[in-house]
Design a protein that fits this description.
Number of domains of chain A: 2
Strand content of chain B: under 5%
Largest sheet of chain A: none
Largest interface: A-B, 41 and 53 residues
Shape of chain A: elongated
Helix content of chain B: over 70%
CATH topology of chain B: Na+/H+ antiporter like fold
Number of strands of chain A: 0
Number of domains of chain B: 1
Radius of gyration of chain A: 25 Å
Strand content of chain A: under 5%
Oligomer: heterodimer
CATH architecture of chain B: Up-down Bundle
Radius of gyration of chain B: 22 Å
Order of helices and strands of chain A: HHH
Distance between the termini of chain B: 61 Å
């Protein structure tokens, strides 16, 4: 097997991969035009109550604090995914939400009476 | 007393302590290192642990769990495998007959949301660009003396797609399957380490903070038509890729149809889990000392890393092109998600994007290239198989 065949393989392979995917792009764009749903009505702005014990939602004009403390890469990625989800949800609801702080809390550190108080206040 | 001594002597002579060689011992150590990486470091444990256990079982001397000679020829004598094969021989039939990688692709299809790709079809280009890493590495592997089929199988590590890599290696380089699979899954686990330096090196701060427009809403009709269209088009254009793409899209059609929830739940959980156990053990079993402990394995590991890095780099560079010349704003970082490690590559993109601008959320934009790379790598594997199979 000579080098010209190898280079021909590489060029052919890349060209075919691009050709197939470009063909799919064209079809997807046509499909999008034919089948895409009409833009939905913008929902009324939702009232979002800030919770004191988890994170704060603030106006976008304020400078943003970077996530802290930085524990592990895994946790950072989970936090990144959650912030992305909150951001997307906020845009759909017509609001720009930002997480300005993330604090680690031990679970079940409240007393039973404290828990009851939180449950009562969230009803 | 003589009978007792004779029995003990017989047992001793059959034991691994007598029949084992130092090569077996090295392989046992390698498999234990993989067990450690899977459990302590959590490197793709769902697959690495079964692979490591398969490797451990096959390398215990005298165990006779796996007989590679049964699968050595062009054709397999199934009667002989069933009558004289061990557990791992039976499991390997699922790999040899392409059953397990395709079933995994079916499960992946059931779990994948192609919405970001349908909303932004241009991201297919990034999924295609990242496949350049495969083809460039193919040249390198061939230059190092690997035959074309083996070079193609090694280069496929750059797709970051385990089932596709195993699918191709089983067909073109079955004796190297263990080394290739171990390298592929190890690098997939190392994506958060391998990709960020390349992403930062190839992009400027200004490019990393580019904000992309919110993806449009994708209707249910589009989601249902998508897998059908892709199956037909890819099936007609690259018939050799139909197995992989067809099963992926069939799984996705099940998911999006909304009428077979029970089947979808089974495919996402029980079916996937059972197949992963069997696939992992069977692949690990092929890593015997005579195949694994040689310079070629080291070369495979090195070339796999090169393929991975080149795939990432090509994706980012193509993202830069789209950023410069595209109609819509494109953040080049999402190009790195053009390797199909789902969802790890997209998460890394999100993290690096947030490091540059904490309010920039690239996760959903990066999902488009990632899922398109699954299709792209299946197409690339089909092309390589049609050329060298």
């Amino acid at each position: 097997m000579n080098w010209s065949f190898i280079f021909a393989t590489v060029v052919t392979g890349l060209a075919v991969v691009f050709a197939v995917l470009i063909f799919l792009i064209v079809l997807l764009k046509i499909m999008g035009r034919l089948l895409s749903a009409k833009p939905r009505k913008k929902p009324a702005p939702m009232q979002i109550m800030p919770r004191k014990d988890s994170f704060k939602l603030v106006a976008p004009a304020r400078p943003v604090t970077v996530l802290k403390p930085v524990p592990r890469v895994d946790e950072l990625q989970v936090i990144a995914v959650i912030t992305a989800a909150i951001h997307a949800y906020g845009e759909q609801a017509g609001k720009r939400l930002r997480i300005v702080d993330v604090k680690k809390r031990e679970l079940n550190t409240r007393s039973a009476w404290g828990n009851m108080g939180v449950i009562e206040s969230m009803r | 007393m003589d009978v007792f001594i004779e029995s003990m002597k017989g047992l001793w002579e059959k034991s691994g302590f007598v029949n084992g060689t130092w090569l077996d011992l090295v392989m046992l150590i390698v498999s234990l290192v993989l067990v450690y990486l899977a459990i302590a470091k959590k490197y793709e444990p769902l697959l690495l642990l079964p692979i490591a256990v398969g490797m451990l079982l096959t390398n215990i001397p005298g165990g006779n769990m796996f007989h590679p000679e049964l699968f050595a020829g062009e054709t397999v004598d199934f009667a002989q495998v069933l009558s004289s094969g061990g557990l791992l021989d039976l499991l390997y039939l699922g790999v040899k007959l392409q059953l397990f990688p395709l079933l995994i692709f079916f499960g992946v299809g059931c779990m994948t949301d192609f919405g970001p790709l349908i909303a932004n079809p241009s991201s297919l280009l990034l999924g295609a660009a990242a496949q350049a890493g495969i083809f460039i590495t193919f040249i390198g592997a061939f230059a190092l003396g690997f035959p074309a089929g083996e070079a193609a199988s090694i280069a496929m590590i750059g797709s970051a797609d385990g089932p596709t890599t195993i699918w191709l290696a089983t067909r073109l380089a079955p004796e190297m399957l263990g080394s290739i699979a171990i390298a592929a899954y190890s690098y997939m686990a190392l994506i958060p380490v391998i990709q960020p330096p390349i992403m930062k090196l190839l992009t400027t701060k200004k490019e990393r903070v580019v904000r992309m427009a919110q993806l449009r809403f994708v209707s249910k009709k589009e989601r249902i038509f998508f897998p059908v269209i892709v199956t037909i088009i890819v099936g007609f254009l690259i018939p050799d890729a139909l197995g992989l793409v067809g099963m992926l899209m069939l799984g996705n059609l099940f998911k999006e149809s909304g009428v077979v929830d029970r089947l979808v739940k089974t495919s996402q959980n029980e079916l996937m889990n059972v197949v992963i156990i069997m696939l992992g053990m069977a692949v690990g079993a092929t890593a015997k000392a005579e195949n694994f402990l040689n310079v070629r394995t080291l070369m495979i590991i090195g070339l796999g890393l090169v393929a991975f890095m080149l795939g990432t780099a090509c994706g980012v560079l193509f993202g830069k092109l789209m950023c410069l010349f595209g109609k819509k704003k494109t953040n080049p970082l999402i190009g790195s998600a053009g390797v199909s490690a789902l969802p790890m590559a997209a998460r890394v993109t999100q993290r690096i994007g947030q490091e540059a601008d904490p309010n920039n959320h690239l996760l959903m934009h990066a999902m488009g290239p990632t899922v398109s790379a699954i299709i792209g790598s299946a197409v690339a594997a089909g092309i390589l198989f049609s050329l060298f199979g």
